[in-house]
Amino acid sequence: MSRRRAGRGPRSTLGSVARRALAACAALAGAETARAQCHAWTGGFAAPSALTGEPYTLFVAVESGAPRLYLGGLFPVPGGGGPNVARWDGANWSALGGGTNDAVLALARHDDGAGAALFAGGSVTTAGGAAAPGLARWNGSAWSSVGGGVSGGFATVLALCAHDDGTGPALYAGGAFAFAGGVPAANVARWNGNAWSAVGGGTNDRVLALLACDLGTGPELYASGWFIQAGGAPANGIARWNGSAWSPLGAGTGGGARALCAFDEGTGTRLFAAGGSEFLARWDGSAWSSVGGGLSNVVNALVVHDDASGPALYAGGSFLSAGGASARHVARWTGGAWSRLRAGLDTPMVAEVARALASFPIGVARAADLCVAGTFTQAALLPASRLAAWRGCASPVDAFCPGDGSLTDCPCSNRGSAGRGCAWHAEPAGALLETLGSPATDDVLLRALSMPTAGTSIFLKGAALDPSGAAFGDGLLCLGGALLRLGTTASTAGTAQYPSLPGITLSARSGVLPGSGVVAYYQTWYRNAASFCTSATSNATNGVRVVW
What we know:
Number of strands: 48
Number of helices: 2
Strand order of the largest sheet: 41-48-47-44-45
Structural class: mainly beta
Largest sheet: 5 strands, antiparallel
Radius of gyration: 25 Å
């Protein structure tokens, strides 16, 4: 039989892809199912139309017990309303009143004594039509100025952080300005709800990032940017405020660190700064060190996120490699090594960049989705207009390793339909592995569908997940760690099931105890005797993750 290229399964329109992206970022986890893929990209931004303009920042706030995702930048709000800042409530986007007249570059939530509110900083001068130089306050119904805002220099707020330095809770603003509320405050200022005050003499140049964290000596405020002095003393791009004075952090980062993040790699919390010769450095309280060889270009955003593989530090920016290995614009650091998120982000023939990251919790899940905003138009091979989601695993049973092009491409671009395995010669949609039953009742069955009418199927279990996937015959294999061959069954009318005999449970065969919380990964290999796109005459379904 001659070789021939697979037909592709139905491709989603941009609008439907966009709706799936938002569901990945914000919708609550549904019932147990193996059809919602995890550890894969989904692209797009907002129904009914894709996002245009320039997104700059993402922020997650808990309001009335539920998470909300805010987006700031320079863009029209999907669905209409005031521009440049929008709120996603899990079902719809909404504008915040009349929005702002210019770019929103930083967001924070803080109670300054008048109730919890959203603060939006940037190059704005008005919000909702009211004067708000550099910074505005949204109380849920109206915008207002924050003590007269900032002025002088570029009069721009680039970073916001709520922090108590021992003198009471306050909102700290960093950026490029000379005054706050008319008070001299060089590039960093403190708002206590009634008045602005300087922060120890400020810095001699722009502040790009602020972070409040405890590295073992109590909560302190960290600032990074283009300055070489803080409080009049040398501070090479990064400094620490202890409530009374600024101090440098060793030799510093060399300036330009656009993001700060605290992360525990297993040896205690460390400060990570997106700067230095390798574009990312780690401060342990006494010295700076390399982070696995660093990144190949600028890092714009850092966030700690758990996609059900364990907490990790994620970096987003304009880099193309991490630790010397390919990683397009977003990468994951676990404390031992960098890994890429499949094919990453892309914009053909344009200088694409990831600008903001947010870990958006989906309520009932162990993990959230990683939301990424920037100027890219593709996430892996899927359309993604300026925002994409790396899907975490949400329920006790989730699918992963789709052959639909949302991760490593199928061996000969023989993509299947959404969520299924790679196509084979008689089924362009690809084979599907799903589950029946529940880990809670120890009656989980694996069922593989849409395979050859008659043939051999081997059910496999992996102790870990290979986040990149690898070619496996005409399909992909994403199982990692020790592999266990559970059993071989014959396909009947294109369907195979395991266990297929009474008295055998999947948990026992997998060597796990229900209720233990052990995570196992499953895929099905099947024989496709007809010559297709490789010489292997075999293929694989998607994978299924089960939390026992």
